[in-house]
Amino acid sequence: MTPISRLRLAAIATLSIASAAFATPSYAAKCGGDFQGFVAAMSQEAAAAGVSQSVIQQAFAGVTQDQAVLNFDRRQRGTFNKTFEQYVSTRVGAGRIKMGLQMLQRHASLLSRIEQRFGVPPEIVVAIWGLESDFGKGDIGKMPVIRTLATMAHDCRRTELFQGELLAALKIVQRGDLPLKDLVGAYAGELGQTQFLPSSYIKYGVDFDGNGHVDLRHSVPDVLASTANLLKTAGFKGGQPYGEGTPNFEAMREWNRATIYRKTIGYFADRLAAGG
Fold first, then answer.
1. pLDDT tens-place string over residues 77-120
2. Which of 134, 155, 160, 216 is a Cys-bridge partner for 192, taking CB atoms 3.0 to 4.6 Å apart?
3. What are the extents of the domains in the chain?
4. Closest to 4 in 3D by CA, of 183, 178, 188, 148
5. Are the beta carbons of 73 and 152 closer than 8 angstroms?
6. Is the distance from CB of 32 to CB of 156 less than 8 angstroms?
């Protein structure tokens, strides 16, 4: 679990707006009580949402609660209290800046096309990519997403939010974007190289390599374009400042509600734009 993922989990605890893509007035599955009964009710919800029986059966086969997920969630809520200076010093060092500059050069053509389409500067996209997963080379999570989300949805504190995320995860498999074996992520079900929640995956994911699937685990074009698409949809405007207090800084709340994270994105992007 990366520090950024901890920040996102804290943001989810105060209602991450990334869940809005699958928000409904209420879900039929009742939280708490017998876990297998809850899974059976979620299976009915999934079928009503258009998920095939084969996907439902494969996804829920043998699924059990993960107490480690609940324990981690309870430990992390409200515990992040570093200053910006303390935090950024551990996240944006010389090595990460150097690698970010290399990524800007290596993917210059791709990033230029993404900027033309979505209006998000390459430095912002690469900064997020670097912070979330060390440009795809770091830890993007190894936890089975279905088990994680079923555990969180069964817990009554944020059941509607995570029931929506669970349905979204099943739709990722249903669409053929990722096979079930690749549906692994972090402690709140975040997926891929820039750690999208499943509902964000469905809502903002872009097939930018043109292979017919949105693959945020393996396809760099899909990862970077989807990241830019999320920001554009949230109101990010190209050619405008993105420092604290600007409209672009507020647009980045769609990515993460934590001010300290958005300031870190901006700081990293500034360093990349300045050549290190």
1. 544 578 999 999 999 999 999 999 999 999 999 999 999 999 99
2. 216
3. 3-77+141-191, 84-139+206-273
4. 188
5. yes
6. yes
Q: Whole-number mean pLDDT of the chain?
A: 90
Average the pLDDT over 22-26 and give the result: 44
The pLDDT of residue 276 is 83
pLDDT at residue 15, rounded to an integer? 40
- The alpha helices in 92-217, defined as continuous H runs, are 94-106, 108-118, 122-133, 145-154, 159-175, 198-204
Q: For 157, phi and psi rounded to 5 degrees?
A: -70, -40
CB atoms within 10 A of CB 25: 5
Query: CATH number for the 84-139+206-273 domain, one of 3.90.228.20, 3.30.450.20, 1.10.530.10, 1.20.1290.10?
Result: 1.10.530.10
What average pLDDT does the segment 17-45 reach?
74
Alpha-carbon dihedral 82, 84, 85, 90, rounded to 10 degrees: 70
Return all residues near 133 (Cβ < 8 A) that are at least 6 apart: 2, 139, 140, 193, 194, 195
Task: Name the fold adopted by 3-77+141-191.
Answer: Helicase, Ruva Protein; domain 3 (1.10.8)
Q: Would you say the CATH fold of 84-139+206-273 matches that of 3-77+141-191?
A: no
> Are the C-beta atoms of residues 224 and 217 closer than 8 Å to each other?
no
The rounded Cα 255 to chain-centroid distance in angstroms is: 8
| Cα dihedral 220, 223, 224, 226 sign | positive
Q: How far is CA 125 from CA 104, 193, 213, 235, 251, in A?
A: 10, 12, 21, 15, 14
